[in-house]
Amino acid sequence: MTGFVDAFTVLAVGSGAIFFLAGTLGLLRFPDTLSRLHALSKADNLGLGLIVIGLLPHATSVSAGLKLACVWLLAQLSAATASQLIAGVARNRRPRA
Amino acid sequence: MPDFLTGAAVFILVVTGLGLFRVLRSQVAVERMMAVQLLGTGGAAVILLLGTATASDALTDVALLLMLLSAFSCAAFTLGQSSSATATERAEEKP
Amino acid sequence: MSSISNPATLFGLCGAALVGIGLFTVIVHPGLLRRIVGFNILGAGIFLIFGAVARRGAGAGFEGDPVPQAMVITGIVVAFSATALAVAMLQRLFDLTGRATLEPPAPEGRPGSET
Amino acid sequence: MNALLDVVLVAGLLALALHVARARDDQGAIVGFIAFGFLLGLGWVRLASIDVALTEAAIGGGVTGLLLLRVEAHTRDSSAPDRTARPITIAAAAVLCIAVTAGLAFVILNLPSPPPTQAPAAAAALDATGLENPVTAVLLAYRALDTLLEKVVLILALVGVWSLAPDHLWGGAPELRPAVVPEPLSYLARVLPPFGVLIAVYMFWVGADAPGGTFQAGTILAAMWLLVMLAGLRAAPDTRRVTLRLLLIVGPAVFLAVGFLGFAMAGGFLAYPAGAAKPIILGIEAALTLSIAVTLGMLVSGPSKRAPTS
């Protein structure tokens, strides 16, 4: 059983780490501000979500697991509003046609 | 297992650091604020991994706090931006 | 001599370097706001040195000596209140003079004429 | 693996500090400093000081950032500094700073071994307080006088900030709300504070037995209050309001009162009667959390910007 759980954790955490890599690659390679923002907020949040899922089986108690889930929920809220705010400023800055 | 989790934490820290320097060196002011977003998410991931690797529950609280305050700092930054953006727009409209 | 691979020593040395970087910013940079940030980096370096000492003092079932740790928490809060006061003074200086530096204005009224 | 993590963290911290020192504009430096605060929080985790990590993340990564970003936006129009330091000054400063760093590094490499520690003494005193978190015990029992004085420093700093208001605005309210409030910000200011208050109460509650405590809880509450004021959902209060001033001093006042009661009940200033230490400490902490939240919030808000109403 532990072997199965460990394999699951390795898989989820590993793919989460790859999403972080993808986010950074997008940040480095994408041509303009808005697509970079898109790469950052989507990929990194997916990565964090996968890591949280991977770590959940290792939570020592129900409340610890709930806290893990809360971190991810908070990340969703934070990323959604922060990206909106940043994108709004970016659009204001664009030279008007 | 702890070694794998710590390794993953190092990997994410390095990757986040690369993105961080790309963003901080950007000429566009708005892109710099992505640094906080980036480090909030990446930092939370690193701390959660370390917390499980060392079996210390209190680290989850640090991740929680980091996420809460990254949203807050982001809001603070965009405020300074938007007020100056409207100011420059007004200045542009004058002549 | 303690080994550098020990996290306490490593972060202590990092703290020493941060003190140097912060001090340099405070002395050299003409802008007051940057000096305030430099002061905070300097403080962070000193706190890290405290943290290294605390980490070395692990014992009695604790992973670090709680006394220096508590002093660092007090220090962080006091450094924050000093920063807030400095920022308010900077803002007032700017409102009164339109400048955010203590350097005297360049002579003959041409900014940057010296360079 | 852990050593690699430490090296990466230290390299990141030093690179960010250099970025702050060398960035062309102040805004870039401040964003670098906020990132530095977050990374330093990770560093404190590695130094096994979770209490400090929480404080650093909350203050260094959160509230200080807002404070600096606001003043940067306010002073952005100032002309670039007229002159930079002369090369000889820079060289002298560099020599001085390298000497300071080298001296500190020498001290760190030659710290006494075995290291002196107060940990056993703190552990012995822990039983008397009924607390489990040694850092909270040190802050509120073992060295409570330091903590009391620190609260006084906070109030003094606030008096200093307030006194920078022009005469005709004295007693009025600070202004945080920007001219235009973006839509997502008012959404955030409605949704985040309930979470924040919950986390703050939790942080206060676990502080007795696990990492956390008054500073962390107070800082989170202050951040949430600031968010609400930034979005313009609630205006900042007049600084001359009696309720505000009472909230500012309730923490230190309770602390001081308990201190003097110590003479009567336990034979010394700030001595707690045996057996009742934990409830007393929790009571002090509750009052302190409120005062810290209000004080930090007002410190970031700055001096009055509006004339007092009526």
Radius of gyration of chain D: 22 Å
What sort of overall outline of chain B do the alpha carbons produce when their principal axes are compared? flat
Order of helices and strands of chain B: HHH
Q: What is the number of independent domains of chain B?
A: 1
Helix content of chain D: over 70%
Using only CA atoms, what is the Rg of chain B? 18 Å
Overall mean pLDDT of chain D stands at 87
Terminal Cα span of chain D: 64 Å
Provide the domain count of chain D: 3
Contiguous uncertain segments of 5+ residues of chain B: 83-95
Q: Supply the number of helical segments of chain B.
A: 3
Give the structural class of chain D: mainly alpha
Share of helix among residues of chain B?
over 70%
- Could you say which structural class the secondary elements and strand pairing of chain B correspond to? mainly alpha
- Euclidean distance between termini CA atoms of chain B: 66 Å
In DSSP terms (H or I, runs of 4 or more residues), the helix count of chain D works out at 11
Helix/strand order of chain D, N-terminal first: HHHHHHHHHHH
Question: TL;DR of this structure?
Answer:
The complex is a heterotetramer of chains A (97), B (95), C (115) and D (310). Helix content of chain B is 88%, strand content 0%.
Question: Explain this structure to me?
Answer:
The complex is a heterotetramer of chains A (97), B (95), C (115) and D (310). With 97 residues, chain A is mostly helical. Chain A has three helices and no strands. Chain A is elongated. The mean pLDDT of chain A is 86. By secondary structure, chain B is an all-alpha fold. Chain B has helices spanning 2-24, 29-53, 58-93. With 115 residues, chain C is an all-alpha fold. Chain C has one domain: Helix Hairpins, CATH 1.10.287. Chain D has 310 residues and is mainly alpha-helical. The longest helix of chain D has 25 residues, at 50-74. The mean pLDDT of chain D is 87. Chains in contact: A-B, A-D, B-D, C-D. Chains C and D meet through helix 1, helix 2 and helix 3 of C and helix 1, helix 2, helix 3, helix 4 and helix 5 of D. Chain A: One of its GO terms (molecular function) is sodium:proton antiporter activity. Chain A: This is Multisubunit sodium/proton antiporter, MrpG subunit. Chain A: It comes from Bosea lathyri. Chain A: InterPro entries: PhaG_MnhG_YufB (IPR005133).
